Amino acid sequence: MTNAADIAPRRLGRSILAVFAGFVVVVVLSLGTDEVLHLLKVYPPWGVPMHEPRLNLLALTYRSVFTFIGGYVTAGLAPHSPIRHVLVGCGIGLALGVLGVVAATTTDLGPIWYPVAVALTGPVFNWLGGLFFVRQAVRI
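RE: above sequence
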């Protein structure tokens, strides 16, 4: 017979895994797409500032889609309370986004609006992805 003390660590581990997996999905898809666009010479070489607004908007667009997918994955893997797990991911993502804005103010890799937009839209799209999962799960 299992007791609550045996179940809690497994659920905590699954919760951490759900949030972590959502982040991995976003990072792998984003950096993979970045690399392809660098190799195709759509983007300048790594480390060269990218000031072209259309290219930054392109990056923001696919990152938003990938962040939505990350929220969906987090909610899908959550052992319970999928939106709570997504909100934890949103909080962590917002904190990392703010750090990205701070880092962008000390380097010249492009316009400052881009990391600000990533920091602000990331949690929104992550939450929408989780919400989409929950809404789909209710229909099934």
